[in-house]
Amino acid sequence: MNRGVALELDSLRLAHYGNQISCLICAEGNTPDAEYCRNCFAPMILAHQAQSHASKPVMFAALGPSGVGKTVYLGMLLDMLSRQPKHLQLAARGGFSVTLQHNTIGALSRCEFPTKTPNEPDRWNWVHCQLRSAKQKQPVEMVIPDMAGEALFEEVDHPHSYRVIHSLLSRCDGVMILIDGTKLQAGSLDEDYFTMKLLSHLTELTTDPKRPWSSRPVALIFSKADQCESCFEDPQAYAQRHAPGLSRICTQKFRRHRFFAAGVAGAIANRPVRGNPSHMVPLRVEPRGIIEPFEWLVDNLRG
Ligand SMILES: Nc1nc2c(ncn2[C@@H]2O[C@H](COP(=O)(O)OP(=O)(O)OP(=O)(O)O)[C@@H](O)[C@H]2O)c(=O)[nH]1
Ligand SMILES: [Mg+2]
Ligand SMILES: [Zn+2]
User: Fold this and answer.
1) Is residue 7 part of a domain?
2) Same domain flag for 134 and 27
3) What is the rounded distance in angstroms from the CA atom of residue 271 to the CA atom of residue 57?
4) Structural contact between residues 300 and 282, judged by C-beta atoms closer than 8 angstroms
5) pTM for this structure?
6) Residues of the chain with pLDDT under 70
7) Pocket test for ligand 1, best of 68, 70, 71, 72 (most atoms within 8 A of CB)
8) What's the number of domains the chain is made of?
9) What is d(CA 210, CA 220) in angstroms, rounded to the nearest whole number?
């Protein structure tokens, strides 16, 4: 079937469905039975579930290059928040919202790390949840996707190539930007450049003038800090020492930013597999500094 025919059929179907439903991410109208948005490929279940609340859910995103540790961090964060007896409590909305933590914790318990996130947005894990905190009377509705690092940087290099990422970053209420602490420690400048690229991209996005990116909260997290203890001591000083360019752009352009350090594994080992001689596996799971960045973002949400 060619592209022209597909469009024709789509419009025919739309004629039969008077009640369109707007995608929660890009606001494109879709038929009520669509599984994924026809414009950005975000799951339409998010829009259906969000209809039960008058206000739109808060959106947070974890950003960073491929392999920085987004999936491991988010999976562990969600699992910890959904088991905590008090303070910040998270309840998943819909079975699909549990998949990310299930896959991550399942892999870690088998002494494996989860597999790389696919580039296609309809294969990402999305989390829709309700967050209760001691500071707020009403629970906060929240949406967090686990996006692929390669897709993210494709969008940064070629804006609008991934519509879902463009819409998400424009609409997002706060971000957790992960920076590989071990690579910085080893003297790699890539991490510094990747993050500067990302921050410059955010500042150039045309968004609601009342909510410029310069006023939205940005948590910068040194990931894999279990492998570089000095990250934990003073993340701000670590940033100035190892990523001076990044430190400067944060001070100049983001009024609300803070550096954090986080680590999920207690110890790791090299277990070469075919095609990847440097394949790493976790020997222990010892989460540290996981909840603090998220808690800071929630505290810094406007209103
Ligand atoms: N030591 C240590 N290594 C980690 C940790 N988190 C992730 N890693 C390593 O980093 C690799 C990539 O982690 P992922 O969470 O899959 O990375 P990602 O950012 O989701 O990557 P994409 O899905 O490709 O965007 C893992 O396979 C581990 O080798 C951590 O907390 N500590
Ligand atoms: Mg991933
Ligand atoms: Zn959409």
Assistant:
1) yes
2) no
3) 41
4) no
5) 0.93
6) 1-17, 302-303
7) 72
8) 2
9) 23
CA of 144 to the centre of ligand 3 (A): 15
Q: Please check whether residues 199 and 65 belong to one and the same domain.
A: yes
Instruction: Indicate the DSSP class of residue 254.
Output: -
Length of the chain: 303
Domain span at residue 27 reads: 3-38
13-23 pLDDT, tens digit per residue, is 666 667 899 99
| Shared-domain flag, residues 160 and 279 | yes
**Which long-range CB contacts under 8 A does 231-240 form with residues at least 24 apart?**
231/181, 231/185, 231/261, 232/261, 232/263, 232/288, 232/289, 235/259, 235/260, 235/261, 238/181, 238/184
User: Residue 268 phi/psi, 5° resolution?
Assistant: -130, 160
46 is a domain residue: no
Residue 43, domain member (yes or no)? no
Closest-lying ligand 1 atom to the alpha carbon of residue 72: 15
In a domain, 47, yes or no: no
Cβ neighbours of residue 299 under 8 Å, at least 6 residues apart? 135
Q: Max alpha carbon distance in the chain (Å)?
A: 61
Closest-lying ligand to the alpha carbon of 229?
Answer: 1
